[in-house]
Hints:
By secondary structure, the chain is mainly alpha-helical. The chain contains 24 helices and eight strands. It has a five-stranded parallel β-sheet with strand order 5-4-6-7-8, sandwiched between helices. A three-stranded antiparallel β-sheet has the order 1-2-3, with no helix packed on it. α4 (about 135-145) packs parallel to α8 (about 230-255), α8 runs parallel beside α13 and α19 runs antiparallel to α20. The longest helix has 29 residues, at about 1-30. The chain is globular. It starts with a helix and ends with a helix. The relative contact order is 0.09.
Amino acid sequence: MMHYKRPLFYFIALLLPILILGLAELGLRATGYGNSYPLFIPSQHSSGYIEPNQQLIQRYFAPGKAPKLSMDTQLVLATKPADSFRIVVQGGSTAAGFPYGRWGSLQALLQQRFKRSYPEKNIEVINTAMAAINSYSLLDFQAEIVALQPDLVLVYTGHNEFLGLLGAGSALSVASSRGGTLLYLKLRNLRLFQLMQSLLQTFSPTATADTDQRSLMAKIAQGADIASESPLYQETLKQFQQNLALLLQGYQQAQIPVMLSTLVSNERDLVPFSAIGITDWQALTQQLSTSATLPSAVLQHKAAYAFVQGLQALQQDDAVAALAWLKQARDDDSLRFRAPSAFNSIIRSAAHTYHATLVDTEQLFRQHSTNGIVGNSLLLEHVHPTAQGYSLLAEAFYQAIRQSNMLGGAISANHAAIPEVDIPLTELDQRYAALKITNLMRQYPFRQPDLPPVPFEARDALDKLVQQRLAGVDWLSTQQALIEHYLRQQDIVNASKAMAMLADALPFDALLWRDTGMYYMQLQQLQLANYYLHHALQLAPGNVRFLLPLAQLYFMQQRLDDSLLLLQQAKKLAPTDPRIQRFTDKVTQAKVATLSTHKK
């Protein structure tokens, strides 16, 4: 009998603490202690919609320790429509659209292509990208993204792997190993874990709120110097490879296709960050040109040495050597805010191994750069594209999607890249972004010591709106003021663009969508008019005020049968409205004339 009691005793002894911890966890949850910080929360703008949680970053930090980071607001239907093709974007600040925000992002520019190419398809592009995050956060978001039921996931990630949130070399890391970080991500939702965090924070002698005014780049790179030969460098390469494999395996198991992009960074026009402390470049260049062997002083600045050699090769019109040296300078830059070449090799291998579609953004950028060396013509600083560069990033993914034939059906627009005028960025967005970049590059790691922010003085009405944004006025208010400004100036082109951005931000406002479509119709931008008027009618079906503008558009596009069909619906709703009969007669006459022409 004792033989059976002993194992039972051990079993109970093991089970008891688990039971106690489980009851404690349930008790904390019952009392409302702690938070979950989900990726999406119900929208406060309209019922039936969800939006990114602006407190999401809190899930990774003890109270008072989180940096000021959040995703751009975007309203998404909580229940995926039956006719929707839903795309989700994952990545860091480049995928998020820094410094332009949502309207210069991969999401917005890709959506702009779809507006012209597939104006009557319901294609949703949802952005879950955020500054400073890396493959750990992408993994952490995966289950919640799968719950959105995407038909396709787009991934652009890698630049934040060393020094981003949870990165191995970052001051914002939470564990000393990959296993520890993954365990932290599993435990952080437990209320007991949050209670322990809070207690440690309370009794820690350094438990103070984050009042550091330095840039985020300065905060996360405290003492970071990661040489190519270091164990930390190799560990981070392995971390990226394994996290990417887990990410792709997860989507593969959920039967969700993935498109994975290579990375782009500034090679031609960015001094390696680890070389910023060099004060006498002329002396260094002279030393390099007169030394038969590599000086010991230069061995400490391998990135600087390679960068100088690359510039000299450019001066000698040796583009092949210049590219090789400048890539080496990027790869040897020990202050790692740019992903080294090895990351693109990992990305290519992962895409092949896990049957993801490889999107070769790096190659497309090289094709649009002088001598194939990427520089300031397409990038604002180290990794963030210009407006034209973001258009190219979207183009790379757009062509991959088009070639996959996932969307099917005929394409309404030609395949040429969208013109700059069509990029959904207003002059206000451009000015605000330029100011952000100017001030960013006056700080570490772009220069030492930091310079104070540039004083901003309003010169005109648009600058006053920039001031409002700087003062924290919400985007919706400044956008409405911007539209009013353009309308006063009778600038219908820019007013239409600003209205379209507002409509995209408020996908439930049928009247705004209709008015945007009518402005585009006035400008003869018929594909964009089609997109907004078609979706406005979907929001308000069976409404004459929405049927007639779309009928008029179809008439202008020579889609006479479609126009007549809408007019018949309008006549049933308003049989005594003389406008409908006059318009019907006009379309009927045009159809008769067209048939007569074909008979001849």
